[in-house]
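quick one, two chains, predict together pls
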Amino acid sequence: MFRDEGVLMFCIVVPLGYPLLYSWIYNNETVHEVPVVVVDQSNSQLSRQFIRMCDASPDVKVACYTVDLDDAKSLVSRQVVKGIYYIPEDFATRLNRMEQSTISVYCDMALMLTYKAIYQTALAVTTQMGAAIKRSVSGNYTARDDLVSSSPLNVEEVSIFNPAGGYGSSVIPAVLMLIIQQTLALGVGMAAGTSRERSRYSDLVPINKCYSSVGRIICGKSLCYLMIYAVMSTYLVIVVPRMFNYIHMAPWLNLLVLMIPYLLACVFFAQTVCCLVHYRENVILLMVFISMILMFLSGVSWPQTSIPSYWQGVSWLFPSTFGIRAYIRLNSMGATLSDVSFELMCLWGLVVFYFAMACIVYTVEMGLSKRHTTERLEVLRKKRAVRLQLKAKKKGSEA
Amino acid sequence: MKYLNNIWEVAKRECKILYVNRIYGYCMVVFPLLAMLFFTSLMDDGLPQEMPVGIVDLDNTSMTRALGLKLDGFQNSRVVAHYPSVAEARKAMQENEIYGFLYLPKGTTDNLLASRRPTISYYYSQTSLTAGSMVMKDLKTTATLAAMGVGQATMRAKGLTNQQMATLMQPIRIDLHQVVNPWGNYNMYLSTVFVPGVIMLFMFLISAYSLGMELKFGRGKEWLGMADNNIVVAILGKYLPQALIFSSIIFFYEFYIYGILHFPHEGDMWDMLLLIVLQVFSSIGFGIFIFGLMPSLRMSMSICSLWAVLSFSLAGSAFPMMGMDASLQALTWLFPLRHYYMLYQITVFNGYPLVDAWFHLVALLAFTLTPWFVLSKVKNAMLNYVYIP
């Protein structure tokens, strides 16, 4: 395995390098200072206050001012800004007349995160300004009166488990777990493809004393992969989160209890999948594209409860689904082992299932290679017999 | 004429290869269709619906119960359980039963009526960003409505008119225009980038793979011979069938999302056709270029897959490019999917003039022409190299 550059690349280089790359991409976690353009037709003290407050907020930056909406639209089209705040002419007038006034917000919906930043900033600023206006007209006597009349109920927002709402903190843990399964499958599949290509009849199992029983083959191979991936997965699930300060709440013992079935399931999964590989490069075509689908099936990008049931069923076939879910809950949400007992059970189930599958696959493959060998042996024997016959004939005729 | 004839001959030979090796059929037709089906059916709802949330109602009065019913009435949330304490609700979150909960402490109603300004809170988890933000929206609206309801009762008692009440409760109203995608539909937002991304991944891989297989099976000389040792003719002939197959797959995809699923788009048919052509040619060009740089099947395919997988992140559709480091922003220029995405969202999605996306158009054209630099290397590889596994 170590002599093969391709396998080496997928089993060592990719697991080491990919997390660093992804962490770099998402290291800013959230978007700040989204550029917007303001069309201020009111041009009043109140409208300027709105603009100032938006500009001062962390998420939005007022990049330009234009005279009308068409100009503003062309700025969005040229990607200079991501949204428009349109303040109508009667904005301040209506407020001063004690009528409800409107600010229009136009968002480029090509990006959800910028849309949220633009909209929520406008919402927060108008709420704050509204509270001040409310206070000024309410005719209260004390500051406490002001507070109670403007917000009779104090609403507290608590974002637990990923308090900053960081994109990286939510996606990277899933990526880390997925990398383990996918690189294992790529590496094992590639090695399997190579052994097929080396063999005369493109058989998976070579004829050799060491390859005499299914149990020996699978256990031996698994032990090798396990040893390498024990190191790799320690790096992925323990070192990387600490290096980049992602949330890491799980004690190492809990992670160990999770990683043992996960790694075993991944190893047997990879050995089952590798029977599909006929040329060593085909495994890349198969596994790389599945990564994207598995990522979405794990319930990180798209909520688990909203995944249609038939895709849920498909997701149960892959160790990564349960591995990712359990890892996120243990490590990012501080769950205990009993909280993820369902996922652990499923993982052990997959271990048994894929071990059985790998045994079946290898039994079949061994049968095939035995048949090919015996056929070859027959052919050779026949040849020899014919040769001997010919020789005997020759001798007979000479005699 | 001779050239055309040669191209035709090479193309016929390529069709035979595509037919014989089953993996081509899977990667060019079956898997792209599968990805199409997967992404569009996964997010068929558009927005996550009926996500489980909980309530910790220690007050248990008619007012707090009404809040619970209100929360349940929202389209995106469903109240699945009532918990006796915050600790239990948090545990339910850790057990993956709910995404968030509303906490109403004891004495909320009493304090509210006595103007003692009680505090209520809502908890949500952003470990899944989509679920977190959706649940947060509903919880926040419920809590805000509760506060408004009290103010409304007081004002009505004072004898204010409806218009005055609306003004006092919300002096400045936001009139939100979600341009082109007014539903905030995630299917229209993600499927339009991820499916082309997957197809692009296959175009990268297949174009490197098919060149590499010539080398692997030692058919390179035969291939060049059919084109009279003219590498341009050989490449044009080889990739003609592939480009046609991929184009028709993408065309079918566009027909499926715009014609059948009715995804919104402001751009017209010609914008889409231009985009299809550019997507196919730039991706195939990139695949050939990478193979030419490293004429080894394994290395070129590894690089192509690395590039394709990274481009999903670096396209900047989920996490915007402006949030990344400056050096990464420059790096995104090297990814065809980034330019595809920009061109798509400027011309097809928003319907802005093509000239505003000129840079990305030129970049995709440049990717199409990159094989020009490595033509001689590819030819040399075919004639002289030996396949090393």
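Strands of chain B lie at 51-57, 77-82, 100-104, 119-125, 172-179.
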